[in-house]
Amino acid sequence: MPVSIATAREISRLCDEPSWLLESRVQASDLFDKLPIEKSSLYTRQTDLRGINLLDFDPLGIVSERSFKAESESTTTASGNCITILAGKVTEQHLSQQLVNNGVFFGDLYSSLAQQPNLIKPVLVDKAIAPDDDKFAAYNQAFYNSALVLHVPKGLVVNDPFRIRYFMDDSEKAVVSRIFVVAEPESQMTLLLEEYSKSSTPASNSLYSNSVELHVGEGARIWFQELQNTDERTIVLTNRKCRCRRDSHVSWTIGYMGGAYTKSRIDSDLLGEGSTSEEMEVVFGTREQKFDLNSNVTHVAPHTKSEIISRGVLRDTARTIFKGMLRIGKDARGADSFLAEHAMLLNPQARADSIPALEIATNEVKASHSASVAQIEEEQIFYLMSRGIPENEAEKLIILAFLEPAVRRIPVEEVKTALVDLVEKKWTSNTNSLPEENTRMK
Amino acid sequence: MAIREILSDDSSKYDFKDSTDTYVYRGKKGLSIEIVEEISRRKNEPEWLTKFRLQSYAHFLKRPMPNWGGNLSRVDFDEIYYYAKPSDKAEKTWEEVPENIRNTFDRLGIPEAEKKFLAGVGAQYESEVVYHSLAKDLEEKGVLFLDPDTALREHPDIFRKYFATIIPPEDNKFAALNSAVFSGGSFIYVPKGVKVEMPLQAYFRINAQNIGQFERTLIIADEGSEVHYIEGCTAPVYSSESLHSAVVELIAMKGAHLRYTTIQNWSKDVYNLVTKRAYAYENANVEWIDANIGSSLTMKYPSIYLLGRGAKAETISVAYAGRGQHQDAGAKMVHLAPDTTSRITSKSVSKDGGRTSYRGQLHVGKGASNVKSYVRCDALLLDEESKTDTYPYIEVGEDSATITHEATVGKIGEDQIFYLMSRGLTEVDAFNMIVMGFLEPFTKELPMVYAVEMNRLLQLEMEGAIG
Lengths: 442, 467
Prior knowledge:
The complex is a heterodimer. By secondary structure, chain A is of the alpha/beta class. Chain A contains eleven helices and 19 strands. In chain A, the strands form two sheets. In chain A, strands 2-1-5-7-9-11-13-15-17-19 form a ten-stranded mixed β-sheet. In chain A, a hairpin with a 2-residue loop joins strand 1 and strand 2. In chain A, helix 1 (about 5-15) packs antiparallel against helix 2 (about 20-35), helix 2 runs antiparallel to helix 8 (about 135-145) and helix 6 packs across helix 7. The longest helix of chain A has 17 residues, at about 390-405. The model of chain A is unreliable at about 65-75 and about 430-440 (pLDDT under 50). Chain B folds into two domains: about 15-410, no CATH class; about 415-465, no CATH class. Chain B contains twelve helices and 24 strands. In chain B, strands 5, 6, 8, 9, 11, 12, 14, 16, 17, 19, 21 and 23 form a twelve-stranded mixed β-sheet that branches. In chain B, strands 4-3-7-10-13-15-18-20-22-24 form a ten-stranded mixed β-sheet. In chain B, strands 1-2 form a two-stranded antiparallel sheet. In chain B, a hairpin with a 2-residue loop joins strand 3 and strand 4 (about 130-135). In chain B, helix 7 (about 150-155) crosses helix 8 (about 155-160). Chain B is globular. Chains A and B meet through strand 18 and strand 19 of A and strand 23 and strand 24 of B.
């Protein structure tokens, strides 16, 4: 049965949602039907979704197969603060007693709504990721079958990272997930998000749609770290947004390794004076992978600062398009913004496009961007080989060196190591197998 | 003219209106099949061209308005005169040009410039070319510098062979419009190996209110030849909009060197929607030097298709946007052959709420190996109301390409002003000097007289930059 508004209603019913949640699913479903694939006339020509029909994937099966509430309340013997979701089902959930005592919430949306309705309902009603602005956001908000909340109270600094792991398995299924993070003023946290595949029938595709909202209170800091390492049959659609209040900071790190087709969008809204955001993106595309990566920073308040560093390496017939947009609004005097999109092509059939755009509406600012596309230099390989390094190894070294300016800036050491590890593994094996213990972020 | 004298000129020089009573012909407002046919009939055109115009008109009607770029909602195609003929024919000597038109161009300094350093001049007034001259020695070498009507009459084969081959009417709505109603412009053919050392110039003037100017320029530089073409544009200030929509096609054959310079200084109620494209064959070199100072809205992205091995392309573009102006300009480089290189330098200045946008495209096609391209866009915002956007599209489908793009946006640093003032400059002079310095990559490419003119125009625009 193809996905329709009835699917949204059925998911809502199975999850026993209140009517206002059902209503917003219905609205989103309607918007999903109406919106064009790309709303911005800047990118219309660059967006290519041929051969992908979101309606072919079933977001309902996952919900009907489980008892949503019961599952999510179960905890296992896992240590650390983690939630693991296998095919849409929570299989592991753990939060240290100390954090529970400190008032941290880390669990599914429905429990959160039951426990702290005044906290999370306004966030949902607010729709930081506007469903009328993006067809894929509308899809996500109509058909989500998994939703998590992380709430850290005021002034609490959590040093141990929170981990969320997704494992995709059943083909033709859609894992449609939402994550809401609320960082109260002066709190600090690290969130690690990992995505892997475990396909039982590797002949067919699956869909992974995820949205992440970071609500960053005054003076709060969030380090959001994501490694996307699904198999090369998964369609990956992600929308992430942070809303930064005064003097807050968000650091995004995203490693794009897996996925057949990845469409990713990150919006950083710097709403409070002195807020800052930084974004490191690392892409390693091989074979027929396609990556469509869109990063937008909007400087609304004065003295805000942002930086985007994207580095991509593309082999075989892989393709990437970097769409970066820095907007500096009228009142954002003293804003400082930088965007860099650099790609390296390893084969004549690989392709990299960049659209690094600036829209600046006031003059007391610093804004610049740079973009480049280049090949691996024969001389560099020759030089390394002349030092006794085999060709394959030399190429790998050059690639890692090329990615280094982004990797070096990753603020969480274990993510840095895991990412380099993944690049090396992919270089060697060119497959995205299940993580072995040592590649998992620990 | 001494530089001091030029600098003391005032800007009202271009803002005068001539009477339109003496025009030989002026069509009705608005566009229809009849108007298109009328233009073609008055020009005595062969059937194929009439047909071409009508097909273009049909395409124009079908094609939606672009939904990107500037705000086009105030362009009213029904309020425009599409054809006006101020004089019966293009004269060869200055004295033969009707007196009132001659006075106009005298005031703009065209004959003076011609005497000084130009190899040839064409002057267009409304829809028709009123004056054309070419240095004798060039004529003897076989260089053609004509208006399109004459070119079609005297050299029908060359004209038809190349006309609309670079920019077909289907390219965009405004190219279709131009193809339907074009009149005037330049046709230049430079034979093999001929080097035209002095620039050729055309001057375009809109005089009447609500008039559309749709000139068509086709330049063919045959193998190993060299030519530099300069166009200038002015119009008096009216309160309602005029439309300028030109099509410019350039062909640089093997080893040819073709440079096209524009100094666009339309009055601030002109919509300037222009399609410019060049083909560069093996080892050819094409340069667009493009300054946009005037107009209400300019949408112009000169492009170069690098079709032959070793071709080189360069675009240097300067935009200035003051109050109420939007300069949406840029450049497009399409690399379709190996070992081709291109460079785009864009400099823009916005002031008093003006808006500049750089919109560029850099495309490296399959098989175009060893392409090198460099794009640099710098924007200067002189006050906090002004806006600037940069939209560079970079599409690379070849691993051997080396592409770099850089853009910066900034304001004039107080320390820079302070430093210059500490050397005895006034604040205004310091300000001007910094802006001129910022634009210097452009002005240094212009012939001396134009560079001076350009600086003067900018200084006039900048007046009052320091409150």
